[in-house]
Design goal:
The chain is built from six helices and 13 strands. By secondary structure, it is an alpha+beta fold.
Length: 268
């Protein structure tokens, strides 16, 4: 699907960000990359997330671009993670010809698929409410991460975070080269770390397997784009479900956010 939803975010969800206030949206926003990019105004220290569902084997591209800031500081903390909710929630409804109707259903969800089966056993009507089911999954996402801290690779869990700063993007050539070298070194360090990890696991595979691992919170990646262009992060999806892109503003910012699916666009 090409639909990304903006939903409320609990302050417990992103320990590395700790937003003071949240920008809550009461209606879903449609973000279709082939047509336009949705712009979000995020006040200082606030966080906003968009969500999209994927099936195993698809490739997701998470994109953001900080357009402007009254304070002149074009920077933010970013978190990409999932699957934060089951793919049974909000499944796309298709007609007899296999065409999408534009509707979604959660009829396959059972109490056992939720974090509090007793709650839904006593209130079975809530199993049909996509908003209630999503909020339940989002609220309990930290518990899911703690429970599966050693299973990131086997379960394909994505929990990627970094800080991006466009403040000096597009400067003179010397500044661009300096920032490009910093970015290159950061990427080289990351590649070396991943290579060591793969060697330690001694996978012995001809083609390197996609790596899913719990990142070190004490070593946040810095992204310093040297040019004024959207930043993209692409990952192959191993576990079906809902994934999200969250941005927390250092200062008031206007930002474009999008999540794209290779199955829709024929490659990302």
């Amino acid at each position: 699907t090409t639909t990304s939803y903006a939903l409320p975010l609990s302050t417990d969800l992103i320990p590395i960000m700790k937003p003071l206030q949240l920008l809550l949206l009461t209606a879903p926003l449609l973000a279709q990359s082939a047509v336009y990019q949705v712009q979000h105004y995020i006040p200082r220290r606030n966080t906003e997330c968009i969500y999209s569902d994927f099936q195993a084997g698809q490739t997701a591209t998470f994109e953001l671009f900080i357009i402007e800031s009254p304070a002149g500081r074009l920077s933010a903390g970013v978190q990409i993670e999932g699957p934060i909710a089951s793919d049974k929630i909000g499944e796309v409804v298709k007609n007899d010809n296999g065409e999408e109707t534009g509707e979604r259903t959660s009829k396959r969800v059972t109490p056992a698929d939720t974090w509090d089966p007793n709650r839904y056993a006593q209130n079975p009507h809530e199993l049909s409410l996509m908003g209630s089911l999503m909020q339940d999954a989002i609220t309990n996402w930290p518990r899911f991460l703690n429970r599966h801290g050693n299973d990131f690779q086997s379960k394909g869990i994505i929990h990627h975070f970094f800080h991006i700063d466009y403040t000096h993007s597009g400067e003179d050539e010397d500044a661009i080269r300096a920032r490009a070298e910093i970015t290159r070194q950061i990427q080289q360090d990351e590649n070396d770390r991943r290579r060591r990890l793969m060697e330690e696991r001694n996978l012995g595979q001809r083609e390197m397997e996609e790596v899913y691992e719990q990142e070190n919170r004490g070593r946040m990646e810095r992204v310093l784009p040297d040019r004024i262009a959207p930043y993209e992060w692409t990952k192959r999806i191993k576990s079906s479900g809902w994934y999200r892109l969250c941005v927390q503003a250092d200062e008031d910012i206007l930002v474009e956010m999008d999540i794209r699916n290779s199955a829709v666009f024929g490659g990302v």
